Amino acid sequence: MFYSKRDLHFQLFENIDALSLTSFDYFKDHNRETFEMVLDAADQIGVTSLRPLLTEMDRNEPQLVDGKIIVHEGMKKIYRQYGEDGWINACFPYEEGGQQLPNTIQAAAGFIWQAANYSASVYPFLTSGAANLIRTFGSKELIDRFTPNMYNGKWQGTMALTEPDAGSSLTDLSTSATPTDTESVYKIKGQKIYISCGDHDACENVIHLMLARIKGAPAGVKGISMFVVPQKRTGTGDSNDVLTEGLYHKMGYKGAPIAHLMMGSNDGCEGFLVGELNKGLSYMFQMMNEARVGVGMNAAAIGTAAYYTSLAYAKERPQGRKIGEKDPNQPQIPIIGHADVKRMLLFQKSIVEGSLSLLLYCAKLGDLVHVAEGQENDEASLLLDLLTPIAKSYPSEMCCLTTSAAVQVLGGAGYTTDFPVEQYYREARIHPIHEGTTGIHGLDLLGRKVLMQDGKAVKIFVEKIMQTIAKAKVESTLIPFAEKLEKYLQRAQQTSVHLIAKAGKNPEEFLADATLYLEYLSILTIAWQWLQQGLIAQKNLSKGSLEKDFYQGKIMCMRYFFEYELVKMDGVGKRLVSEDVVTVEMRGEWF
Question: Are residues 192 and 90 part of one domain?
């Protein structure tokens, strides 16, 4: 078992009410039956195609052979299956061959695959994101030329941003684009690094959505344009002078290749302008923001798979006796009977299920931005903007800790390759890095998101939490939790006001602890998600639900999070209002 179908259905149909999306015309052809059919189909792929290759893809990582990256043979069938079964364009309109599926349900399907085999899961979502950029901002000619073979799984799509001297600082991007005699066709020259699925033999062509700078364009990010740069020229299949110069070997996530690309070494690389000149970064942020929530989901899925591995082990592994039991003739008990093991399991469960709740909520907000109108659309858009750095960073950081806890539950066995938790531990570590480091998302949250539109997004956020608190206060058993969350929400508002007061006076001091502020607000956000889940669970228990164990588990997880995690806001909050700016005053030569 690598995920819980019951919990996924709880999150979708009881917690965030995904079925409410079917009230919109775009999604009206769907119902719970179609949603469950999609999830069952995803489960089938996860169980039969992805999961069996989990260890193989880790032990037999891609290799660069004669300028071509060779991936696990099984990926050819899997990637084509994604295309042939309609997963890559499932969320797109009927007229484009899509199914008009809510992204919320697609994200849930992805969660299943990521828990089954993270490496094998990334290929289709990269293509979907790249194709979405073309269909949203590209000309009809580009759409017709490139998207059909991306949808059917013949061609891979990528996002090509990073360069050796321009990682997060895209201002310093140097890949160039020179106009040719053909309108909208440019000669591309430069290099890109860390390009996920940037080259592999499980597809016929790789279509890069690439950022480059046209000569004479404005300096900085305002002068960046976007281009479609195929690895091979369409029609002829000839090389487009996109060469694979290197393959990065990673500590985890080994089944998906990460390439170093050189464009235009022989002055023969053609790129096709997407949309308007110098608008490339704004276009790319569409894919980046989608990918950031996706990264959080990846982390939560890996953490979930590790949790269920450690849970199964804890139920079966006999070790020791209950505290106070001194008779050596008594049989040993499974380690799940020990309080400290239960603490580690509760930690994992509370983080992964709290994170999944937030991530699916964000996916629903994304669907509302797509289909809702007026105030509902505005509020969904602002709230999604505010929550994106949290949804990306909290699961990414915390699932490094939960997978570590999974290893610890297994003890020495967890440190061996006999169990997959050591692989999960390695694979979890990439997520605080790619699609923007945690530090960058901290700067984004405090330096931009809490300030935008005079704090309107924060006001909506507070209103949503207060709505949950008000509902929880109706349930007598939840009143202490509602009051505790309300107290921490008030403290968070006071802390935010204190920090914002520094913004105009000393920007460096204002943002010095932005990463800690991200952690601070993240804990509050997940506590809100747990109060919401606890409210649903308590109502079902009060009705005498036959699934008592499931709902009681939710209540216990809520209790754990409030007792062990929410209280961490005390220490972080104290640091945030401190006037000792040690990190600002420290000098490089003093290290």
Answer: no
